[in-house]
Amino acid sequence: MESRHRSRFTQPEIDEYAAAHSTGPDEVQRDLQEVTAAETGWAAGMQIGDDQAVLMETIVRAMGAKRAVEVGTFTGYSALAVARGMGPDGRLLCCDVSEEWTAMARKAWEQAGVADRIDLRIAPGADTLRALPDEEQFDFAFIDADKTGYPVYYEEILRRLRVGGLILVDNVLQNGRVIDESVNDENVEAIRALNDTIAKDSRVRVVMLPIGDGVSVVQKI
Ligand SMILES: C[S@@+](CC[C@H](N)C(=O)[O-])C[C@H]1O[C@@H](n2cnc3c(N)ncnc32)[C@H](O)[C@@H]1O
């Protein structure tokens, strides 16, 4: 199978080399990739790459995270990585608006034996997050849904993140369009604004990684 380490910002040869020297997906993950490609058409490109999945599972595992939230679940690949990383006593809240795509996620989570760690809520992410109690304390979060919603997801999650906890924000480089001043569509504008906000936010430290479509790793301090 072709490499699914998908940095859009490194040379293809470097990407291949990195893929060959990183932990790859297992059978359950490959099955999910194949079903997603076969059944969702163009949308399959929304799934995170293998490099991002193994990075997320490793971070979650190393942190000992037990309470996590994701906005933007699709067919469940990123959630699978987080749920595995947390182990059997972890709990992951997943937010998405699509019954159809998340039905595939539920099947994959059953197959992987992690379904009982995941609470999937079908509603706009902002509504689900705003309805959470203020005293909710997440260790880890992943934001990967509609781009114009990111600022709300960031604020609602940050106020419920424990000190030292992490938020991973996906698609922060918008295929390189964040640095092209001639591009001003609403998704790129929303991401540029959030990137600027996070870089100046005294509540966090952040590093932006050029893997996939760009991932910011944000830590509450
Ligand atoms: C990029 S995909 C997520 C990919 C997923 N993280 C993965 O690894 O496969 C974005 C998802 O966000 C969902 N979405 C779009 N608008 C949303 C909203 N307002 N609230 C919650 N989810 C939303 C879409 O239904 C879609 O499944």
In whole angstroms, how far apart are the ends? Answer: 41 Å
**Radius of gyration over C-alpha positions, nearest whole angstrom:** 16 Å
* Sheet with most strands: 7 strands, mixed
Shape: globular
SS-based structural class?
alpha/beta
Helix content: 40-55%
Strand order of the largest sheet: 3-2-1-4-5-7-6
Which helices and strands, and how do they pair?
Layout: H1 12-20, H2 27-40, H3 50-63, E1 67-71, H4 77-86, E2 91-96, H5 99-112, E3 118-122, H6 125-130, E4 138-143, H7 150-158, E5 161-170, H8 186-200, E6 204-209, E7 215-220
Parallel strand pairs: 1-2, 1-4, 2-3, 4-5
Antiparallel strand pairs: 5-7, 6-7
S-adenosylmethionine binds next to helix 4 and strand 2.
Quick structural overview:
The chain is an alpha/beta fold and 221 residues long. It has helices at residues 12-20, 27-40, 50-63, 77-86, 99-112, 125-130, 150-158, 186-200, and strands at 67-71, 91-96, 118-122, 138-143, 161-170, 204-209, 215-220.
What keyword list fits this structure?
single chain; 221 residues; alpha/beta; 7-stranded mixed sheet; 8 helices; 7 strands; 20% strand; globular; binds S-adenosylmethionine
Molecular structure report:
This protein is 41% helix and 20% strand. With 221 residues, it is an alpha/beta fold. A seven-stranded mixed β-sheet has the order 3-2-1-4-5-7-6, sandwiched between helices. α2 runs antiparallel to α5. The chain is globular, with a radius of gyration of 16 Å. The model has no long low-confidence stretch (mean pLDDT 96). Bound molecules: S-adenosylmethionine. The site of S-adenosylmethionine (SAM) has 21 residues, from α4 and β2. The site of S-adenosylmethionine has 21 residues, from α4 and β2.
